[in-house]
Amino acid sequence: MTADVSDSDALLPRFNDRADSYTQAAVVQRALAKWLAEWVEPIEQTRWLTALELGPGDGLFTRVLAPQFDSLTAVDNASQMVERGRCALPEVKWLVGDAWQIERLGFDRVYSASFLQWCDDPLPVLSNWHGLAKPGTRMLHGFYVAPTLKEWQTISLSRSPIRWRSAEEWITCFREAGWKVLRSDSHSHTQRFPSALELVRFFHRTGATTAKQTSASGLRKMISDYESRFPATDGSPGVESQWTFFRIEVAK
Prior knowledge:
With 252 residues, the chain is of the alpha/beta class. It has eleven helices and seven strands. Strands 3-2-1-4-5-7-6 form a seven-stranded mixed β-sheet. Helix 7 (122-132) packs across helix 9 (167-176). The chain starts with 6 loop residues before the first helix and ends with a strand.
């Protein structure tokens, strides 16, 4: 880490650096997006509504939303992701911006996928969104909660950039922020990788890494430990990682 990078900056995900590799590598994110899409309203109920997607990356879940709405806006702070999304889905209004500091939320529907787990302090963010939203606004979010990546956390030599909260903690945050919880659900997802090295490559190719790096020798030890401790449960080659998907729909 260079001297001009603060400790907080060092713990930021690196999505802009991985714009070229994200879509192909994002196997877990695709699984969550498919699961979240089950709760998107039928097109006959959404066509004439306005919608906003927060933290869309290059449009993995946006592809689900785009056919549903005549007016869809997508806001992400990774400019290269936004540019790729704009090229792939030009019918969507793409904007570069910070969803945590958003200043306007006058939409009928608000969505996000694989995004909210990155929020360090969700209560003020959710409260701000509630204050900006118009009456009747509904939000649908899908993201990851504890226990997620518990195997990796067991052997990791560095602090996770994410503070993993439980589903119950998130429900409490939404309610304390003023949102009415309409429904919520959790789902345990097992993702197999050909090796622990491929799991590490998944983290890097999707941008779920930080500027604060483990040493090469430390990383080799972690990969070796993961291989020996968390092999595929059916005895076939590879390793497994456990994720807990969470989806929640709320209204103002």
